[in-house]
Design a protein that fits this description.
Blueprint lengths: L8 E2 L5 E8 L4 E8 L6 E7 L12 E2 L5 E6 L8 E6 L5 E5 L4 E7 L5 E7 L8 E6 L6 E2 L6 E7 L5 E7 L3 E7 L12 E3 L9 E4 L5 E4 L5 E4 L7 E2 L7 E6 L5 E7 L6 E7 L5 E3 L9 E3 L5 E7 L6 E7 L6 E5 L1 E7 L5 E8 L6 E8 L5 E6 L5 E5 L5 E8 L2 E8 L6 E4 L6 E8 L5 E8 L3 E7 L4
Antiparallel strand pairs: 1-2, 2-3, 3-4, 5-6, 6-7, 7-8, 9-10, 10-11, 11-12, 13-14, 14-39, 15-16, 15-38, 17-18, 18-19, 19-20, 21-22, 22-23, 23-24, 25-26, 26-27, 27-28, 29-30, 30-31, 31-32, 33-34, 34-35, 35-36, 37-38
Length: about 450
């Protein structure tokens, strides 16, 4: 059985299992049930994507009482981002549990008396902690209250021991000069910036050469390339993300998180004057880039009549969006000459699924080129000369930066870290192409933690 997104959950008698599937062409996630031999596959729940939130946010868990639970995205208001749906194997919803603002990894106790889950709150910057929700009702109990981030819960058969992955988030931003020749032997020399806590989860540059970044707490900053003179953007806002330089000066586009909608919209910010203007107000626009001259903003977001992500452009002064493509993934980058846009697209379903790099003209809907893309490729970019696009790809215990020439041929690995398990979170070349910034974090800062004696 193919095209399965995540782990399966078995029924109490072992005769069936439940699992998720993502349908990018429809803009939805599905929860399916099949017999243990793979026969009888059928959909019991479908959830449309809601802006930047995925429809189904966790793997399912199957209880001894023959009930399923799964975390789903919701737009119920400023107090909730996710909830836990409890449903029968036939798909009938019997309960909708809303304990914390964000909920991941719900898992039943062996006796079905409650659900453990990883939950997050705005006041702790959405750092996931462990919680317990009695079922079918009762007061929620918080289990942990520390600085770690917990995911991927499992519970022992006696219900007394809980296991979780504990992540200690740490990253460093590095800036270096661009080598004169970009190839497999390019010698990148980076120096580390000291400012920030867990910085650089998203990177960009202003037209004047200042560095933009977002940290793991969804705070965004602008600084000199050395990291000095760092200033937090819109300090009164809790969540400012994805600042992108727009044009030759210090105008940027940012994503602001709406307290009521729980979705991002795009805003234009002038770093010199402080002028702030909303550009979009749809169902969750996030990934964005600007034309080199700063006159147009390109972004992804759901369409007015469906939940599939579309590619739009809009004047930087605001106005009516123009659609360039549909069925795109939430990643895009405009070429240095402003004539092309690169993005990901997934075609087909099941065993026939194919992921592609798409290079499209921004002046129309013509697709210039398509390249087969690895399933885990991420974070598109362009080389400074515009003759190749770049992307990140995990390999073994590291994640590396690759370059693919528009003229074809095999991709070239530009940056390779083989000395330690590491992860490149983000990278971006400066607008003049002379500098490159990357963010690295470590893979081995995660532990499996056991909590014993929880229930007696």
């Amino acid at each position: 059985m193919g095209d399965v997104a995540g782990a399966v959950a078995f029924s109490p008698d072992g005769g069936r299992f439940a699992y998720r599937r993502t349908r990018a062409s429809r803009g939805e996630d599905q929860l399916l049930v099949a017999n243990a031999d793979g026969s009888g596959e059928h959909v019991i729940l479908s959830r449309k994507w809601m802006g930047s939130n995925s429809g189904l946010a966790s793997d399912p868990s199957w209880s001894a009482r023959n009930l399923l639970c799964i975390s789903v995205a919701t737009q119920a208001g400023k107090k909730f981002i996710n909830s836990i749906l409890v449903l029968t194997p036939g798909g009938r919803v019997v309960n909708d549990l809303r304990g914390t603002e964000g909920i991941l990894s719900p898992i039943w106790t062996p006796d079905s008396s409650g659900i453990f889950f990883s939950g997050a709150e705005r006041k702790t910057r959405y750092r996931n902690q462990l919680w317990f929700q009695p079922f079918p009702k009762g007061e929620i109990t918080r289990i942990t209250n520390d600085l770690d981030d917990y995911t991927s819960l499992r519970i022992a058969g006696d219900g007394k021991t809980l296991y979780a992955a504990s992540r200690r988030l740490a990253s460093t931003v590095y800036v270096g000069e661009t080598p004169s020749v970009l190839n497999g032997g390019a010698d990148f020399k980076f120096h580390a910036l000291s400012a920030g806590a867990n910085p650089g989860w998203i990177l960009s540059w202003t037209g004047s050469g200042r560095l933009l970044q977002t940290d793991y707490s969804y705070h965004s900053y602008v600084s000199a390339p050395s990291g000095d003179e760092q200033i937090r953007l819109l300090e009164e806002d809790d969540f400012i993300s994805a600042p992108m330089g727009c044009g030759p000066a210090d105008t940027i586009v940012i994503a602001r998180f709406g307290e009521v909608s729980n979705l991002y919209n795009l805003w234009r910010l002038n770093l010199t004057t402080g002028e702030l203007k909303q550009l979009t107000s749809g169902g969750g626009e996030f990934a964005s880039d600007c034309s080199p001259d700063g006159t147009r903003v390109f972004y992804t977001g759901p369409g007015s009549n469906d939940s599939v992500f579309h590619l739009f452009s809009i004047p930087v002064e605001g106005g009516t969006p123009a659609e360039l493509a549909n069925g795109v993934e939430n990643s895009l980058k405009i070429s240095p000459d402003g004539k092309s846009v690169a993005y990901f697209r997934t075609d087909g379903q099941g065993a026939n699924t194919k992921r592609k790099f798409v290079i499209q003209e921004v002046a129309g809907v013509d697709v210039r080129k398509e390249f087969e893309a690895p399933s885990l490729a991420d974070y598109l970019g362009w080389t400074p000369d515009g003759r190749a696009f770049t992307y990140l790809l995990p390999e073994g215990s590291a994640q590396n930066l690759y370059m693919q020439s528009l003229s074809g041929g095999k991709p070239v690995r530009l940056i390779h870290y083989a000395d330690e398990p590491s992860f490149i979170n983000a990278y971006r070349w400066s607008r003049d192409g002379k500098k490159i910034a990357i963010t690295r974090s470590r893979f081995n800062d995660t532990d499996v933690v056991m909590f014993s004696g929880l229930r007696r």
